[in-house]
Amino acid sequence: MKYNCFIIHYAEVALKRGNRPFFEKKLVKNIKAATQGCGPLEVDRRWGRILLVITEKTDVDRVIAGLKTVFGIAYFAPGRIVDQEIERITTAALAAIEGQEFDTYKVATRRANKHFPMNSVEVNIHVADEIWEKTKAGVDLKNPDFTVHIEIFDDVALVFGQRFEGQGGLPVGVSSRAVLLLSSGIDSPVAGFRMMKREVRLLFAHFHSAPYTSAASIKNAEKLVEILTKYQFNSTLYIVPFLQIQQHITSVVPGPYRVIMYRRLMFELAERIAEMTRCDALVSGENVAQVASQTLPNIQAIAEKVKLPIFRPLCSFDKKDIVAEARQIGTFETSIEPYEDCCTLLCPIIPRRAPDCRSFRNMMKNSTSSRSSRRH
Ligand code: ATP
Ligand code: MG
């Protein structure tokens, strides 16, 4: 058996002094959730990192795929825990270079157990010699292609080579919850991903105009939630019928202002969902000036009645960067599937910039009071 464990290094969790045990516990819980179904394994907190012990029945590839979805991990590496004997350490180091291609390498030993008979330089030289015998590759201490890490603790030694980058960030679900306004487009899933990475657990709200439009946007939203759930392990999606509200808006609001009015009511309803579910904030995929409804005055008009904080993590992103991130997360292909957007329903393609704030607000006030009396 090539590996018997994974060594997992935290990202920012290490910086959270007083709250560190709290974050660590959540991280361990999330790692367990992400590796469920991968076969036998145990997750343990040891030596300031997390150790995932596996058996020969564990599906290593699935563990790697699972760990890549966990926020809070800086990097992780499959490795071996061995007894503290130099020959066992060397054998594990030779196993760690198997299948790796490199012209230069280095051995990096950390020795916490000062009673170990060799010091770290002696261990480095001994193991590096054995690797040279096998590969004839050159040693490069400054910028090696590959590094074999050896850590000697009180009772055992840990040996690992290949490292996988983690997602970074903080473990999702530590303390905050927010409602993401999820359209079927490219931006909002990426905005949600960004917030999950800052430990915020998301609830999802999707507004649709079925049966006036097809159910494609609902299907897309469901698929997007499924993809994002990989990163927070379980989710709730609120599918909100919006057609009646839109029909009412079209009867009282002139065409150029309708998109803004639709959005305004979406945000108000999302806030109701947030209140019902004890969430602390709303999240949207708005991006300044990307479309006419997202100029600063229009963003302000849309958010005016909402009391909860609204996070817009993509507000200053270039579209190409959002697209690149959507591809990386795995939401892009679903987001570009055709659907009818409920916001373009019954209104001109180009919404007007909210020009005269006073008359716009009066219009809002009138239509909002008639809306509440109809109790949609
Ligand atoms: P996206 O790609 O997320 O659709 P977009 O660039 O198309 O964003 P807009 O359509 O203007 O932007 O929407 C701005 C934000 O309003 C979205 O990112 C999303 O947070 C929210 N939103 C828009 N339509 C809906 C909807 N049908 N359901 C839920 N939220 C929506
Ligand atoms: Mg959209």
Account of the 3D structure:
By secondary structure, the chain is α/β, with parallel strands linked by helices. It is built from twelve helices and 14 strands. The protein folds into two domains: 5-165, 2-Layer Sandwich (VC0802-like); 177-375, Rossmann fold (3-Layer(aba) Sandwich), CATH 3.40.50. Strands 1, 2, 3, 4, 5, 6, 7, 8 and 9 form a nine-stranded mixed beta sheet that branches. It binds adenosine-5'-triphosphate and magnesium ion. Adenosine-5'-triphosphate is lined by residues 181-183, 185-188, 205-207, 266, 284-286, 290-291, 293-294, 342-343.
Describe this protein with a few key phrases:
376 residues, alpha/beta, VC0802-like, Rossmann fold, nine-stranded mixed beta sheet, 12 helices, binds adenosine-5'-triphosphate, binds magnesium ion
